[in-house]
Amino acid sequence: MVFTDFHFYSEVLGIQTAAYVLLPEPKVMNQSAVPLPTLYLLHGLSDDHTMWMRQTRLEQYARLYRVAVVMPAANRSFYMDMAHGAKYDTFLSSELPSVMERYFPLCRKREGRFAAGLSMGGYGSLKLGLTRSNRYAAVASISGCLEMEKGYDPFRMQNPDMVRELDDIYGGEAELKRGSGALFARAA
After folding, report:
1. Cα 34 to the chain's mean position, in Å?
2. Is the model's pLDDT at 75 over the cut of 80?
3. Burial bucket for residue 106 (CB in 10 Å: 0-12, 13-18, 19+)
4. Could you read off the pLDDT of 49-63 as tens digits, one per residue?
């Protein structure tokens, strides 16, 4: 496998950002002119994009299935266009695939794009699947935080800082319940 720690300027986020990228060996890529199927793998709230390489057997699976894996940095964004912050949904759904497909031999078609994530990343991957089903063949959530509209209740008394963080992300509880962050409302 080829491992790249890819840093680039994001026009959408207005900052330098990074993504880990795993690719099959060049000899494997050269055996076929077909672009590589690509998994966009999203990290959880308390992790970053490096955790997949540090804490899993991802490289073995990517080699076995001859798939490229893109692991973007997304901070504590819930992969949303934040009410008071950066536009991580736009970054993840539009800019990141465009940048990755420009620099790497990745599939540009729906049938060759996949997304999965852990916890916050599981939420982000399902949001991609629900809002951009024309771009992803399949999505998966591993222990995803899926009912964010219920997320305020457990934090009200126990963690007021998390409530403020959710407000910055979603613009408040009422906005979350009627906005694009409520996955089950989108699925209905």
Report:
1. 24
2. yes
3. buried
4. 999 999 999 999 999
